[in-house]
Design brief:
Elements (H helix, E strand, L loop, with lengths): L7 E4 L5 H10 L4 E4 L3 H9 L3 E2 L3 H5 L4 E4 L4 H8 L5 H4 L5 E4 L5 H12 L4 E4 L2 E2 L1 H7 L2 E6 L2 H14 E8 L3 H29 L4 H9 L6 H12 L8 H18 L4 H18 L7 H9 L4
Parallel strand pairs: 1-2, 1-4, 2-3, 4-5, 5-6, 8-9
Antiparallel strand pairs: 7-8
């Protein structure tokens, strides 16, 4: 049976890539992976995947190549050049980039790949580490309908909400909007937490009742325990949200959209990073509010 499933090459086995690739292995897919950290390759092999020694080796026989790396420079580094995906994947392969990068990088990649007979989808995700592990990610896709239809069974193993948003780059544009909403939402929650604590209210009780009303959100539900326990172990690092706020600020400027609140939150994320908190979860925006309020850090 598994012979009927496309062979998958997975490049980038980080916080998101590892659990996502493992979900594909569990679903019966043949997954060959490459990443820079040896222990991540060992983890893939232990889960039943195949560890490759290079990108070229990973993609050579793949029907579908999936990439999940931090930002545009890394996507360019793995896609282009003699050792990259485009030179080494077979003609007719489908390249699905699930990284969160600039819409323009996705458009350029699709154009370059077309010359090699390789089809491309940009398919960034939302849902963080928990969403990746539970396979309930939201997947926003840019590209051709036919390629999207072909990729759908793979997406259905990885996520819950799967939407073709338009041509190449559209997935990244929607992801940028997603990151804007998430950052502003976390910031609002963080301000509420400091306000509630300084007022002497039982924080757990307050967040429970807020979560049940119009102020409730997926952000509040997912990050409540981070706030309560001051647990900022990264599900999604401030460093990456900083990158994403740069993408949305820049893209909005290019299309003539004003993001006044987004701009402020982008600066708060940047300040947190400047203070050495870049490796913490984005719920650590709470620390920025605490610093401003003279509350506990």
């Amino acid at each position: 049976m598994s012979n009927a499933l496309p062979k998958i090459a997975w490049i980038g086995l980080g916080i998101m890539g590892s659990p996502m690739s493992e979900n594909l292995i569990k679903a019966g897919y043949d997954v060959t992976g490459f990443t820079l950290e040896r222990e991540k390759l060992d983890r893939l092999a232990a889960a039943g995947g195949t560890a490759a020694g290079s990108i070229a080796e990973a993609v050579r026989d793949a029907d579908v190549v999936i990439t999940m790396v931090p930002a545009s420079p890394q996507v360019e580094a793995i896609a282009y050049g003699p050792d990259g995906i485009l030179e080494n994947a077979g003609s007719g392969a489908l390249l699905i980039d699930m990284s969160s990068i600039t819409p323009q990088t996705s458009v350029d990649l699709a154009k370059a790949a077309k010359d090699k007979g390789i089809r491309v989808l940009d398919a960034p995700v939302s849902g963080g580490e928990a969403g990746a592990i539970e396979a309930v990610l939201s997947i926003m896709v840019g590209g051709e309908q036919a390629d999207f239809d072909q990729a759908r069974p793979v997406f259905e193993v990885l996520g819950k909400t799967i939407v073709l948003c338009g041509p190449h780059g559209s997935g990244q544009t929607v992801k940028a909007a997603n990151q804007l909403i998430v950052a502003v939402n976390i910031q609002a929650c963080a301000e509420a937490v400091v306000f509630l604590e300084k007022s002497g209210v039982d924080l757990k009780a307050a967040l429970d009742v807020l979560g049940g009303g119009l102020a409730g959100s997926t952000v509040l539900t997912r990050k409540k325990d981070n706030f309560l326990g001051r647990d900022f172990k990264p599900g999604f690092r401030i460093d990456l949200h900083h990158k994403d706020m740069g993408i949305v600020t820049d893209a909005a400027r290019n299309v003539g959209a004003a993001l006044p609140v987004g701009a402020v939150v982008a600066q708060l994320v940047a300040s947190l990073r400047a203070q050495g908190d870049g490796g913490l979860d984005h719920s650590a925006l709470l620390r920025a509010v605490e610093r401003l309020s003279g509350a506990r850090i």
